[in-house]
Amino acid sequence: MSGWSLCRIPVQGVLLACLFSIVGVAQPPGRRPVRTVVSPEVESGKVTFRLFAPSADDVQVSSSDLGATGFQGTAMTRGEDGMWELELQVPPGYYRYNFMVDGVVVVDPANQTTSESNSRLWSLLEVPGEQWMDRQQVPQGAIAEVTYWSNVLGRFRRMHVYTPPGYEAGTERYPVLFLLHGATDSDDSWSTVGRAGVILDNLIAAGKAEAMIVVMPNGHTGPFRFGQGGGEMFGKFEQEFVEDILPAVDQRYRVHTDRSHRALAGLSMGGAHTLFIGLANPEQFGYLSVFSSGLFGLRSGEEMNEPARSFLELNKEKLDDEKMRAGLKHFSFVIGKDDFLLDTAKATVEMLRSRGFEVEYTETSGGHTWDNWRRYLYDLLPKLFQD
Questions:
Q1: pTM across the whole model
Q2: How far apart are CA 277 and CA 10, in angstroms?
Q3: Least confident stretch, 27-41, 151-165, 175-189, 367-381
Q4: Are 44 and 92 in contact (CB under 8 A)?
Q5: In angstroms, rounded to a whole number, what is the distance separating the alpha carbons of residues 132 and 230?
Q6: C-alpha angle with apex 59: 53 to 65, nearest 5 degrees?
Q7: Which of 351, 360, 357 is nearest to 383 (CA)?
Q8: Domains of the chain: residue spans and CATH
Q9: How far apart are the first and last CA of the chain?
């Protein structure tokens, strides 16, 4: 089969753009011309999604971030020419979405900007209008996909690492923030939909945050799942973090390795990882911050669940060590008032305070969303490494 025939194969009603249409090669006789599609089109807060799928019977926009669509999807309208469209009013921000074409999930073929979760590739919608998380004309850092060998898991693994402007040409050492994602996400999430590198570039340029390295590892050791087996995977990552990720970062990057120059923060599942790793290894971290999380299953006025009880018993000596607590320069929790883990976060803070920890606790508006987590990161970064 010829090369042009391969790229003209219909896939679930979506015609894939062909190489010959890009370089100007004549189209085969009798073939429908490839359409030029602009999607998403963003103008004054109005977003128009488009998909040319003349053979499709049903097309929807599905999103875990856009409240106007919902994860189940919102129907697009078909034009007479086979172009499907959906127009929405969307506030400034960054949102993941997919198309559902006759029940099959596909990325937007007209949008090259993507974001990975644990088991899916998303298209990424960018609606500018918030300077603190929009890319500005300031010195830019770099984000690299870094491969390392995990002795704990016996295979190669990937993490994303941000280095600040000027790192490549310099010789100085930097503090390091380990930034952990939530359940169903991946090591790619914080740097794409989370805007971590852009937020830090803007803060450094404004003199509001210290230049630092940010390490964003993959908190899943396999396909995400609830229930049986999830706890084992949870523990495997924590072991890998201490035995493989920390040494890899210390060896590859010019980082300070003392406690006062290391921070650990995470959202949801990553917030729980932050507690388990940070409190079990207090000599390693001077800064801990938990977004939208706590010790899972812990609720005010209820008996402590087995995982939390076992963790506290196992780490009792370190949790009761006053010198270890004194070396913790910053310990914070932040969560939205509508977050389903609100009670868990409150109960965890109460328990930690009862054991002598000084914990900063903040409630914001909103729920368990990237709109909140980006803002939490923006608020946290100026508090790190300010000796």
A1: 0.88
A2: 48
A3: 27-41
A4: no
A5: 36
A6: 125
A7: 360
A8: 38-127 (2.60.40.10), 142-383 (3.40.50.1820)
A9: 66
Cβ atoms of 65 and 145 within 8 Å: the answer is: no
Go through 272-294 and write b for each residue having 16 or more CB atoms within 10 A of its CB, e for each that does not: bbbbbbbbebbebbbbbbbbbbb
Range 106-111 average pLDDT:
97
- Residue 85: beta bridge partners? 50, 77
Backbone dihedral region for residue 119 (phi beyond 0: left; psi -120 to 50: alpha; all else: beta): alpha
Q: What is the mean pLDDT of residues 248-268?
A: 97
Question: Considering only CA atoms, which of 224, 133, 127, 130 is closest in space to residue 182?
Answer: 224
Length of the chain in terms of residues written: 387
Three-state helix/strand/coil letters over the chain? CCHHHHHCCCECCECCCCHHHHHCCCCCCCCCCCCCCCCCEEECCEEEEEEECCCCCCEEEECCCCCCCCCCCEECEECCCCEEEEEEECCCEEEEEEEEECCEEECCCCCCCEEEECCCEEEEEEECCCCCCCCCCCCCCEEEEEEEEECCCCEEEEEEEEECCCCCCCCCCECEEEEECCCCECCCCCCCCCCHHHHHHHHHHCCCCCCCEEEEECCCCCCCCCCCCHHHHHHHHHHHHHHHHHHHHHHHCCECCCHHHEEEEEECHHHHHHHHHHHHCHHHCCEEEEECCCCCCCCCCCCCCHHHHHHHHHCHHHHCCHHHHHCCCEEEEEEECCCCCHHHHHHHHHHHHHCCCCCEEEEECCCCCHHHHHHHHHHHHHHCCCC
More confident residue, 11 or 234: 234
Q: How many CB atoms lie within 10 A of CB 14?
A: 19
